[in-house]
Amino acid sequence: MAKVELTDAHIRSLSVKARTEITDTKEAGLMLRVFPSGKRTFAFRMRGSGEKIQNAVIGSYPDVKLAEARAAASRLRQRVKKGEDVTAVAEKRAAVMAVEAQAEIPTLADILKEFQEEMSAKRKIWQRTKTGCLSEAERRIQTVFGAHLSRQINTLSMDELSQSMMKYSPMSGKDKANGQVSRARAYAMPVFDWCSHRKRFAKVGLGRAVKLEVADLQMTSDPSTDDYDITGKRGRALDHFELSRVLPLLVWPAPKCLRMKLSVKKDYRPMALRFLLLTCARRSELVNMIWQDFHEHVGHWYKPYVKTISGPPRDQTLPLSDAAIALLRGLPNYKTRLPEDLVFPNADGGDLGNWSRITLAVQRESSTRDWHRHDLRRTGSTIMKILGVSPGVIDEILAHCASSEATGTSKSLANYLVAGHLLEHVEDPQKAALNKLAEALEYIESNGKPHRVGGLHDEMADGAF
Q1: pLDDT exceeding 70 applies to what percent of the chain?
Q2: Which of 177, 293, 307, 379 is a plausible cystine mate for 237, CB 3.0–4.6 Å?
Q3: Sheet holding 40-47, edge to edge
Q4: In the prediction, which pLDDT does 417 show?
Q5: 21 has which bridge partners?
Q6: To the nearest whole percent, how much of the chain has pLDDT over 90?
Q7: What is the pLDDT at residue 453?
Q8: CATH 1.10.443.10 intervals, the chain
Q9: How far apart are CA 288 and CA 342, in angstroms?
Q10: Beta strands in 265-320 (DSSP E)
């Protein structure tokens, strides 16, 4: 054991490969324990009555300053001289402190709230709804790991978390929900990493203020890995026979044959499904669309948030087809619209929901099956591909391409050319493509029997989509 007169400069400069104890020559009994991790702790050690070694931890440096440590050591030395057992007192206090510290450990629910507050400004999935309802990530995590919400997060083992995923039973009554479980796991992993300063939260300042030792969800099995329904590339798109039966049901007022509980004049969902087909949009984009996002004077739909294949979320301005614009103008809330009103609201003016119910009703009445809302987006893009629209334009419509900011000045240049009236007679390729899509859908709906439309019939007859 080294013996030196401790100074702040010397303590800060210490770097060791193994635990090292240094005795202070200025204050009897005071020593410094230095660890390879960089941690430095003041302690007290002295022989008491009966030659019994007395030990006590004083505190960590620099939380406890050198002068404070020397003063504490002096007090402990006086107590030892009086015959007190400072080791027993120290052990008792350490036990009390451990109990107190454990009582302060947050629960999983507490941590989710903390993480939501930390990430809501950075990640859309952690943003709560306008009415204060849970974010997408919170909702998914609570659905799968709800049994553990009241548990202190450091007591949750990987085995327990894994069992919750393996035994999860969806409320829908389906045999499995591996996709939902996988999303819950993916959303929860960074929460646990944030607590323990792992992976991308390892750098100073990125993790939780108070570090916790918690399970690593990365070490659990993802149930979707071996699920072919998820890992297999889904290529489902409605063919012309299916579309000819589905499209007549996607109207407003909602067809009575769908037998929805909602009044047919208050049910916007069938028209919303048609709008998804016409725009190849995602359901979440449609649900969040408000009237100020519809730039009617230029026929554009501005989306403040769209997902991309790679990179962070971004915005998108989508030129609408004439049919999509006519659909919006034909909605019952068009004339009374306010900028912040939802374009496709529910009966109470809130977010449109119960999508599975309306989809199943449309499938029942159209004698179709095994498709969901995202397949409408895939159907629209497939039709445009058949009609000769370039893959690049389709990617722009689907928001699969990089934003204009990625090319430097392209956005400002476009604005300049518009202001100079140099683009007045140039047809936007996205609008042209979506007009072709609308024309094909109108043809299919009105005829019911396919004929040649720019090669469309040949491709459809061959089962291309």
Answers
A1: 82
A2: 379
A3: 2-4, 20-24, 30-34, 40-47, 53-61
A4: 57
A5: 33
A6: 49
A7: 43
A8: 240-461
A9: 7
A10: 294-295, 300-306, 314-319
Query: Worst-scoring range by mean pLDDT, 155-159, 345-349, 435-439, 456-460?
Result: 456-460
Q: Please, where in the chain does CATH 3.30.160.390 lie?
A: 2-103
H/E element holding 34? Answer: strand 30-34
96 CB contacts (<8 Å, ≥6 apart)?
none
Q: Locate tokens 């969901």: which residue?
A: 372
Longest dimension (CA), the chain: 106
Report the mean per-residue pLDDT for the chain. 83
CA distance 46 to 87: 10
Contact present, 106 and 152 (Cβ < 8 Å):
yes
Please state, as a whole number, how many other Cβ atoms lie within 10 Å of the Cβ of residue 189: 17
Six-digit token string for 356: 């599975």
* Contacts by residues 408-411 (CB-CB < 8 Å, ≥ 24 positions apart): none
Structure token digits, residue 142: 């609570």
DSSP character for 343?
S
Identify whether the C-beta of residue 381 lies closer than 8 Å to the C-beta of residue 397.
yes
**Main-chain phi, psi angles of 290, to 5 degrees:** -115, 165
Helix (H, G, I), strand (E, B) or coil at 229: helix
- The tokens describing 36, both together, are 């390879």
The phi, psi pair for 106, rounded to 5°, reads: -70, 155
Return the CATH number of 2-103, one of 3.30.160.390, 3.40.50.10330, 3.40.50.1000, 3.30.200.20: 3.30.160.390
The residues, ordered by sequence, that sit 6+ positions from 49 with a Cβ below 8 Å of its Cβ are 83
* Of the candidate ranges 55-59, 156-160, 267-271, 376-380, the one whose mean pLDDT is the lowest: 55-59
Length of the chain: 465
> How many CA atoms lie within 13 Å of 198's alpha carbon, on the beta-carbon side?
15
How far apart (Å, rounded) are the C-alpha atoms in residues 385 and 258? 32
Note the pLDDT of residue 83: 82
pLDDT in tens, 185-218: 999 999 999 999 998 888 878 888 888 889 998 8
79-118 per-position pLDDT tens digit: 888 888 777 655 555 554 554 445 468 899 999 999 998 8
Residue 462's pLDDT is what? 45
- Determine the Cα–Cα distance for residues 36 and 21; give it in Å rounded to an integer: 12
Q: CATH class for domain 240-461? A: mainly alpha
